[in-house]
């Protein structure tokens, strides 16, 4: 099922050959019927995605406070996005978050998957799946609130540090200039960990066990098995994990809004939050829109190579 | 063989640790929720005198009953229509998968990775122009549109994989396209439709950005949006905040536990959306 990710790209090439044999008249009628079926979806999509997207592009070329007259400024807003030091830091923050959101869940998930390498069946499996999926089911806002409390002065993290005699390290994590961003990163990792683990565990059960047997007969060590069988076998699933986590980080909003509000300073401000702020607090609709378009392209530019790299050769 | 079982034991231990880490924030919230309202409880400790009344108070101040109703109305307004439109389009585009149909489909697929933030500003002005700000329609209508890329992609993938002979048999029987769709294809697509409905239920229930920007009144919002407002208002009273947050979470978790199998399957399959 998880190979759906690759089908986004894969389907593009695979499908067209199928229905070539039909006659012309049949085609025409079938096409009209098909388009009628797609019409309601397309109307909603056009009205609430394509039109706003077009408006975003239009706004991004203007200087506008949301109320008064617009003034055409060409690509000036994009120039600001690419040169303003604060905005560059905000974009950088998104990438730092992506590292946290991606590395922890993928590495831990791989460790579990490689070690267990069998289906999580029975009651233990059900309990595991249920618990590990909880963070996926609750709103990110709730994760933000829960972890704000975990990271608070009297929260569990500091309580633990004090308990093991590391009192000196205790601090208000989310208000700390150095540690706020990693703390937000850990919240995201917590949310995504269960999903990645389960994806990878499911993926590893699909690898042919005889490969491992053959490797063992050849005298391969555990590390070799991991490197030459497990890792390549999980290519698709890894692709899905990385895609999901990178998008979650680059387009993050909820967690940051709740946990830190972007602070301290702009240490944890991400593009999503900055768009919201620019558009609705600072009334710089043009600049907000330029950042929005930039973010959209950024996500595409990051995700497409991942899709391409992890596609399975057929 | 001995090494294998050791590995398995180690893996189980690792999984148990992961589960504990997953549950820890919930337990910490729970213990805080039982501390006296307005106090600063420790992160994780069973309170000497559990204040169960905090939950009742949070229920009241959060107006939980109205919140539930609002979220339900939004889900009912969004998910059935969105699933229906996506199923129809997926069916149509699976049948018509060349030339213009192909392009049509690609336009939908392009929206798959679109961050909602990319359209939120113009959506605000659009919804304002439609006179729908601060109503539930401000959440329902855009969500239906925003769900189309994934929904269409999801359903088309399903229909592309159903055997062509099915349609041909129905055609010979003289059934119209519309009848074929409802009597043959929709019943067969039920698992895919169910998964899509579950995913969209979750995304709607948990949607935060749209309510924050488009709906001021927490009582017209989704659960997640209302939770944001609740934090803004009661953020300093940690026991009450934790009690309220847990209450707002409770319905989702209850539904998740009941339909655990379907949820897990849907989330694993739907992971692509992120």
Helix/strand layout:
The complex is a heterodimer of chains A (314) and B (274).
Chain A: H1 4-14, H2 24-60, E1 62-63, E2 71-72, H3 76-83, H4 85-116, H5 122-137, H6 140-150, H7 156-163, H8 180-204, H9 209-217, H10 222-233, H11 235-250, H12 254-259, H13 271-280, H14 285-309
Antiparallel strand pairs in A: 1-2
Chain B: H1 2-33, H2 53-61, H3 64-95, H4 100-110, H5 117-129, H6 137-160, H7 164-172, H8 177-188, H9 190-205, H10 209-214, H11 223-234, H12 238-258, H13 260-270
Helix pairs in contact in B: 1-12, 2-12, 3-6, 3-9, 4-6, 6-9, 7-8, 9-13, 11-12
CATH superfamily of chain B: MetI-like
CATH class of chain B equals Mainly Alpha
Terminal Cα span of chain B? 39 Å
Q: What is the CA-based Rg of chain A, rounded?
A: 24 Å
**Beta-strand level of the residues of chain B, as a percent range?**
under 5%
Structural class of chain B: mainly alpha
Structural class of chain A: mainly alpha
Major β-sheet strand ordering of chain A: 1-2
The coarse overall form of chain A would be: globular
Task: Please compute the radius of gyration of chain B using only Cα atoms.
Answer: 23 Å
Order of helices and strands of chain B: HHHHHHHHHHHHH
| Cα shape of chain B | globular
* CATH-derived topology of chain B: MetI-like fold
Largest interface between protein chains, with number of residues from each side: A-B, 114 and 109 residues
| Count of extended strands of chain B | 0
Q: Which architecture of chain B does the CATH hierarchy give at level 2?
A: Orthogonal Bundle
Helix content of chain A: over 70%
CATH-level-4 superfamily name of chain A? MetI-like
Q: Report the order of strands and helices of chain A.
A: HHEEHHHHHHHHHHHH
């Amino acid at each position: 099922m998880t190979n759906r990710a690759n089908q986004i790209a894969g389907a593009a090439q695979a499908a067209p050959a199928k229905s070539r044999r039909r006659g012309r008249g049949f085609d025409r009628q079938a096409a009209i019927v098909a388009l009628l079926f797609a019409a309601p979806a397309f109307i909603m999509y056009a009205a609430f995605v394509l039109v706003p997207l077009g408006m975003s592009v239009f706004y991004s070329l203007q200087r506008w406070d949301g109320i008064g007259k617009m003034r055409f400024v060409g690509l000036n807003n994009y120039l600001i996005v690419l040169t303003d030091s604060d905005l560059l830091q905000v974009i950088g923050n998104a990438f730092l978050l992506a590292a946290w959101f991606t590395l922890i869940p993928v590495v831990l998930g791989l460790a579990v998957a490689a070690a267990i390498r069998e289906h999580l069946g029975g009651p233990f499996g059900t309990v595991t799946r249920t618990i590990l999926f909880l963070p996926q089911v609750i709103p990110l806002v709730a994760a933000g609130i829960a972890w704000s409390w975990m990271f608070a002065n009297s929260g569990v993290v500091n309580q633990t540090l004090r308990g093991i005699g590391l009192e000196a390290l205790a601090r208000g994590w989310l208000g700390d200039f150095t540690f706020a961003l990693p703390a937000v990163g850990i919240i995201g990792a917590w949310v995504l960990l269960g999903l990645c683990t389960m994806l990878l565990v499911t993926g590893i059960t699909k690898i042919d066990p005889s490969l491992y047997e053959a490797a063992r007969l050849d005298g391969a060590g555990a590390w070799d098995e991991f490197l030459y069988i497990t890792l390549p076998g999980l290519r698709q699933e890894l692709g899905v994990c990385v895609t999901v986590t990178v998008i979650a980080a680059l387009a993050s909003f909820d967690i940051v809004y709740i946990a830190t509000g972007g602070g301290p300073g702009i240490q944890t401000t991400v593009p999503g939050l900055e768009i919201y702020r620019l558009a609705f607090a600072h009334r710089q609709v043009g600049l907000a829109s330029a950042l929005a378009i930039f973010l959209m392209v950024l996500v595409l530019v990051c995700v497409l190579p991942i899709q391409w790299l992890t596609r399975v050769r057929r | 063989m001995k090494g294998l079982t050791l590995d398995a034991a180690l893996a189980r231990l690792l999984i148990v640790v992961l589960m504990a880490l997953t549950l820890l924030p919930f337990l910490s919230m729970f213990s805080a929720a039982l501390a006296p309202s307005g106090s600063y409880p420790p992160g994780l400790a069973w309170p000497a005198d559990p204040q169960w009344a905090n939950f009742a108070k949070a229920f009241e101040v959060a107006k939980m009953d109205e919140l539930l109703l609002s979220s339900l109305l939004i889900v009912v307004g969004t998910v059935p229509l969105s699933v229906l439109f996506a199923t129809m389009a997926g069916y149509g585009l699976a049948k018509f998968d060349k030339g213009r149909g192909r392009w049509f489909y690609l336009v939908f697929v392009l929206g798959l990775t679109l961050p909602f933030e990319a359209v939120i500003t113009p959506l605000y002005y659009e919804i304002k122009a439609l006179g729908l700000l601060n109503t539930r329609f401000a959440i329902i209508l855009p969500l239906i549109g925003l769900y189309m890329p994934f929904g269409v992609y999801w359903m088309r993938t399903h229909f592309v994989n159903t055997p062509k002979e099915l349609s041909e048999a129905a055609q010979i029987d003289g059934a119209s396209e519309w009848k074929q769709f409802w009597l043959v294809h929709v019943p067969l697509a039920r698992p895919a439709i169910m998964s899509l409905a579950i995913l969209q239920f979750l995304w709607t229930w948990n949607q935060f950005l749209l309510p924050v920007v488009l709906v001021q009144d927490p009582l017209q919002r989704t659960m997640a949006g209302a939770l944001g407002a609740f934090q803004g208002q009661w953020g300093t009273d940690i026991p009450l905040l934790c009690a309220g947050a847990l209450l707002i979470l409770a319905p989702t978790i209850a539904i998740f536990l009941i339909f655990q199998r379907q949820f897990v399957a849907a989330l694993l399959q739907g992971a692509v959306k992120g």
